[in-house]
């Protein structure tokens, strides 16, 4: 029978995070050169969950040394390596190379510098609530569900927990702080799930700034008590 979630995460949880970073990316890691996918994983994890790197190194190395045998394959009690474009006989060596790169990064303190996300995985890892917002409210079905873009934003604010709305506001401001050109912002919102164009006359960055203002306008307002003039 398949593993329960707790056992899966103990054995393979961080290994799974590493391999998810390879979605749509080549597994072209060399002995002295990590791939773009692994660099994206290292950059994001160093800056958000540095303690997870040791678990990733251990789980990758353990899987490379002890791939599932016939019994575990038959019972389904193992982690199925996704198709990364490598022949099956090369997978174990590739996993070892990944573990070696992560170990070197930890021991040498080599941290990829902050950067604009470079892979689909990294966009969603860095801007998770933005991905939920754009993919859920601005799919190709948006024109059939809402009168316009403003109506979709208003619906999101009304139906979403205020803590998540605040998180989205912070992510949108961070996205704007990347100071990209308009073609890069168009790519960014597409990577994050937006399937419709921004409303006229807005370019992608202008529309994101409008969304940020709408989110900020519906946010928390501090109560400072009575002013001296009101007493």
Give the overall shape: elongated
- Report mean pLDDT, rounded to a whole number: 90
Helix fraction, binned, reads 55-70%
Q: Report on the biggest sheet.
A: none
**How would you classify the helix and strand content by structural class?**
mainly alpha
Taking pLDDT < 50 over at least 5 consecutive residues as the criterion, the unreliable ranges are 220-224
> Taking Cα atoms only, what radius of gyration do you get, to the nearest Å?
22 Å
Q: Using DSSP, what is the number of strands?
A: 0
Order of helices and strands: HHHHHHHHHHHH
For the record, the count of structural domains works out to: 2
**Separation of the first and last Cα atoms:** 70 Å
Number of helices: 12
Strand content: under 5%
Give the structure's gist in a few sentences.
With 231 residues, this protein is mostly helical.
Mind explaining what this structure looks like?
The protein has two domains: 5-108, no CATH class; 127-217, no CATH class. The chain is 60% helix and 0% strand. It is built from twelve helices and no strands. The protein has helices at residues 5-20, 36-48, 52-65, 70-75, 91-108, 120-126, 128-137, 142-145, 149-159, 162-177, 182-191, 204-217. Helix 3 (52-65) runs antiparallel to helix 5 (91-108), helix 6 crosses helix 7 (128-137) and helix 7 crosses helix 10.
Detail the topology: elements first, then pairings.
Layout: H1 5-20, H2 36-48, H3 52-65, H4 70-75, H5 91-108, H6 120-126, H7 128-137, H8 142-145, H9 149-159, H10 162-177, H11 182-191, H12 204-217
Helix pairs in contact: 1-3, 2-6, 3-5, 6-7, 7-10, 10-12
